[in-house]
From TrEMBL:
Family annotation (PANTHER family): CELL DIVISION ATP-BINDING PROTEIN FTSE, IMPORT ATP-BINDING PROTEIN
Protein name, per record: ATP-binding cassette domain-containing protein
Signal sequence range: none
Organism (species): Xanthocytophaga agilis
A GO molecular-function annotation: ATP binding
Domain ABC transporter: 8-234
Statement: the UniProt record of this protein carries the keyword Membrane: no
Pfam families the record matches: ABC_tran
Keywords on record: ATP-binding, Nucleotide-binding
UniProt entry tagged with the keyword ATP-binding: yes
Gene Ontology CC annotation, any one: plasma membrane
Amino acid sequence: MFSDDPIVRVKDAQIFQGGKPILDNVNFSIQKGEFIYLIGRTGSGKTSLLKTLYADLPLQQGHIAISDFELHNIRKKDIPYLRRKLGIVFQDFQLFFDRTVTENLIFVLRATGWYDSAKMKKRIAEVLMQVGLGSVGNKMPHQLSGGEQQRIVVARALLNEPLLLLADEPTGNLDPEVAEEILKLFFDINKSGTAVLMATHNHAFLQTHPARVLQCYQGQVQDSITEGLSSTGY
Ligand SMILES: Nc1ncnc2c1ncn2[C@@H]1O[C@H](COP(=O)(O)OP(=O)(O)OP(=O)(O)O)[C@@H](O)[C@H]1O
């Protein structure tokens, strides 16, 4: 792959959920280092689209390429390798509450092929620094605030230096000020070169931190760059 190739290319894709089509004729690309919001009403298909990108929902029609992986014919055994290119911040992937922060992070590193203790320790220190929580490694998740826990979830997503962070409502359960801090964290991560695709209902973000927007609306995905957005879509 050439370095200026898009990280994600979606061409004429149809997104299915529970056997029924949710989004049709989906076309967009994501370039290295882009920041993109994904918006749309409840039930419009944001989560389904994100799940299709990380191969949790099968792609039944059209083409999606992520880095070197073609999703329409991806083999089951290649899915873990695809996911190493992606950092995932989803409500379904909570921290283990019976382990320390460091143990939570070691679990993911081991599961993704790391075994050298010194290297794991170094990488954990790096990601904790990156999310501004350098000193919490020995704490249990319940000893942290909601915003701090979310920072650890982001740190976990960064462990394998993903090309793209996929985030589904990462600020959903947080106070407005804490939500803003988490948003800033995503922008900081983005500045260091990681692309971000973030589903959100928080439209104030679009004003305070403008970026490209994809909008799920009436079974289609509209792109603020190529066609503008529907103001009635959210
Ligand atoms: N597991 C499932 N089985 C069947 N249908 C589902 C399933 N999950 C979601 N759906 C349906 O798929 C459609 C899209 O849902 P999706 O969760 O992708 O929307 P969303 O835009 O992320 O919504 P929200 O903003 O509420 O998170 C909805 O009609 C929903 O009811």
